[in-house]
Design goal:
The chain starts with a strand and ends with a helix. The chain is an alpha+beta fold. The protein has two domains: 5-165, Uridine Diphospho-n-acetylenolpyruvylglucosamine Reductase, domain 3, CATH 3.30.465.10; 169-262, CO dehydrogenase flavoprotein, C-terminal domain (Enolase-like, domain 1), CATH 3.30.390.50. The chain is built from eleven helices and 14 strands. Strands 4-5-10-6-7 form a five-stranded antiparallel β-sheet. Strand 11 and strand 12 form a beta hairpin. 34% of the residues lie in helices and 24% in strands. The relative contact order is 0.12. The longest helix has 19 residues, at 244-262.
Length: 265
């Protein structure tokens, strides 16, 4: 690693002030940034640690929305009784992230700010139509993700929490890379008062919705409704793990399975 300054603020305002002054990097669980620093792919001169800020942690449910603090760890989401009761698909998603160490260290806010194109949480945020709260504003899921490792966050903006509306039903299924456990393709499907949403991760430059599937499922929420719908391979990734054509096939198959799972089948 390179040399760097390390700051441990006690509240969000202090963290924001340090970030604005230093133009440094935020670190929560450190599962992405620290690895990049070890490989010398990142060289921040200043790190602002969010792990000691109590107001950024915790899970709250009021029956209509589930609010998860930005530094809440994946394992805490997976084990939360509130999450399991109101959005069990979100608990399932968190339980399948990485390995035990990653789940015990990684945070939801860190995962969203990093916006890895194969990460799981972006699919849940977009698939549920969640709202990302920051120290400055609220950002709708459809406006938050801007492509590979890119988000709507400003340089001095800090995610404080994510608010998930409670759906009528939802499910997440991924075809995971056996080594990293990242999604080669992951599909989050939900049906709620605002309609049906289908969000895909791992297949493109970033998480995206499949409007054709959403429209079909709005008319007939069943696995059969999406069997004939395919995302064009020309819009998808092709790499050593899977071709674009295979990823296109997986999106259709996994969406059908997610719908069936959401229906309890």
């Amino acid at each position: 690693m390179y040399a760097f300054e390390f700051h441990h603020p006690s509240n969000v305002n202090e963290a924001a002030a340090l970030l604005a002054k230093s133009q440094g990097k935020l670190v929560a669980g450190g599962q992405s940034l620290v690895a990049a620093m070890k490989l010398r792919l990142a060289n921040p001169g200043v790190l602002v640690d969010l792990s000691g800020i109590a107001e950024l942690r915790g899970i709250k449910s009021d029956g209509k929305a589930l609010v998860i603090g930005a530094t809440t760890r994946h394992a805490q989401v997976a084990e939360s009784r509130d999450v399991k009761e109101v959005i069990p698909a979100l608990a399932t998603l968190a339980e399948g992230i990485g390995d035990r160490q990653v789940r015990n260290m990684g945070t939801i806010g860190g995962a969203l700010a990093n916006n890895d194109p194969a990460a799981c949480y972006p699919a849940a945020v977009l698939g549920l139509g969640a709202t990302v709260r920051t120290n400055k504003r609220t950002i709708a899921a459809d406006d938050f993700f801007k492509g590979m490792y890119a988000t709507a966050l400003q340089d001095d903006e800090i995610i404080t929490a994510v608010s998930f509306p409670v759906p009528q039903r939802a499910a997440y299924i991924k075809f995971r890379n056996p080594a990293s456990h990242f999604a080669m393709v992951g599909v989050f499907v939900s049906q709620g008062t605002d309609g049906v949403r289908v969000a895909v991760t791992g297949a493109g430059a970033g998480v995206f919705r499949v409007k054709a599937m959403e429209q079909a499922l709005a008319k007939n929420f069943s696995a059969d409704a999406v069997k004939a719908i395919a995302v064009p391979a020309s819009e998808l990734n092709s790499d050593m793990h899977a071709s674009a054509e295979y990823r296109s096939h997986l999106i259709t198959v996994l969406t059908g399975r997610a719908v069936a799972q959401a229906l309890g089948k």
